[in-house]
Amino acid sequence: MELGYVVAGLVVGFIVGLTGVGGGSLMTPILLWFGINPATAVGTDLLYAAVTKAGGVLVHHRQRHVDWRLVGWLAAGSVPASMATLFFLSTAHLASHQQDSLIKSMLGVALILTSVAILFKPWLLKRVPGRFRNASFESLRPLIVLTGVMLGVLVTLSSIGAGALGTLALFVLLPALPTTRLVGTEIAHAVPLTLVAGLGHAHLGNLDIPLLVNLLVGSLPGIWLGSKLTHKMAEGLLRPALAVMLVVVGAKLVV
C-alpha cells in the first residue's frame, strides 16, 4: 500500500464530502503531480469516481432525489459521446506525447470551466433566460441531450465536468426542480458516464488497479468525515478557495 496515494484519497474525499465538489478536479492534477501518466491518471480517476458516486446514488434514490427520466436523456447524449471519444483515441494512432498533450489541454480547460462554475454560479442563476423557466420537459429534451454530449466528451478526455458543470447546466435548464433532486440526478448520471469512460480507458491500457485501490482506501473514510463536518466549517470560504486553486492549475496545464 502506497501511503502517499492513500493520503491523497483521504484529502480529496474529505473536500468532496465537505463541499460537494472537487473530486476529479483535484484527484487528476494530484496524480499528475505524483508523476502518473496523464492518460492513466484520467482512466484511473474515472473508475474511482464511478465507485465513490455509486454509493451516493443509493442514498439519493432512497430519498427520492433522482429524476431517472432526466438521467436517461442525459445519458442518451453522454454515453454515446463518451464511446465515440474513446473510439477516436483508439483509432487516431496518436503518439504517446500527442495523447498526453491532448488530455492535459482538455484537463486544463475543464479545470478553468469548473472554477468559473463554482465562483459565478449564483450570478449565472440570476440571469437564467426566462423562456427556460416555463419550458416543458419535452421542449428541453434536445438541449438536455446536447448537454449530455458535451459532458461525455469533456469527462472522457479529462475525468472532470460531471459535477460542477453538470449541476450548473441542470440548474439553468430546469430551474423549477428542487436543488436536492438536481444534485441527486447529476450524481446518478455521473455513474454510468464515468463507468463507461473508465472501462474504455482501461481497455486502452489507461488504468492502474493498485493505484485505484489505494485511492479508495483513503477517500471512502474521507468522504464520510467531510460529510459529518460540513455544517461546522466555513464552506463559503472553502469553495472560492478551491475555485481559485483550480483556475491556477488549469491555466498552468493549458499554457
Give an account of the 3D structure.
- This protein is mainly alpha-helical and 255 residues long.
- The protein has eleven helices and no strands.
- It is globular.
- It is 82% helix and 0% strand.
- It starts with a helix and ends with a helix.
- It has one domain.
- Helix 1 (3-19) runs antiparallel to helix 2, helix 3 packs antiparallel against helix 9 and helix 8 (164-173) packs across helix 9 (179-203).
- The mean pLDDT is 80.
Percentage beta strand: under 5%
Estimated structural class = mainly alpha
Low-confidence stretches: none
Sketch the major β-sheet. none
Question: How would you state the average pLDDT, rounded?
Answer: 80
How are helices and strands ordered from N to C?
HHHHHHHHHHH
Total number of helical segments? 11
How many domains make up the 3D coordinates? 1
The dominant shape is: globular
Structural Rg: 17 Å
Q: What is the percent of helical residues?
A: over 70%
Distance between the termini: 34 Å
Counting DSSP E segments of at least 2 residues, the number of strands comes to 0
